[in-house]
Amino acid sequence: DLHSFPTRRSSDLGIDFNDDIYFSGNSIEGGDIYKSTDNGNSWILINNGLENFIVNDIAFSLDGYIYVAAFGNSPNYSRRVFYSTDEGANWIPSSTELSSETYNIVVNKNGDIYTSSYMHDIYRSTNHGATFQLVSNTIFNITDLKTNQLGHIFVSTHEYGIFRSTNNGDSWESVNEGLTTFYFGSLTVDPSGFVYTGNSGLPGSIFRTTETSLPV
Q: Whole-prediction pTM value?
């Protein structure tokens, strides 16, 4: 069924470990985040603490934290990660102001947070977002960020293909063998470790790794 939201554009959808659905959207005026506990039949606004921020991405950790990458609307262009420990009822900002607008966020199996900007910055936090460390500013035009069950990080880019880090972001390698384009949008990793990505050109294509990224 179609559900109408007052925001003009969807930015992300996520499902937590209770199978509750989270939807974030934004418009010129600002952004909102909604939650559904009945498979999308009804939605409640859960932006307490996020009233003046636009949410770009949502991530869930195994210990019950929910994280969002957000930035403040004009005239406050604050760039922060927010977290919630009460299933989205309240949102607390990270103490670190990031130097660039974050679009993607992901949590690995150890609870480490990774967030990235479109241009070239990737940050890591090992303390629930209290502080962040820049782990890369050499990968440009980042479009998505994901991790597998081993904690390896995969990055898709618009123009430069796919990158992978197996050491928590300290170094990166290009993994473009077999790809016929280097312009990619979204990226995902399935439970078996296969990586999927779609190109952002015409005609559109979906690519999958020929081997799992997990050991057999």
A: 0.84
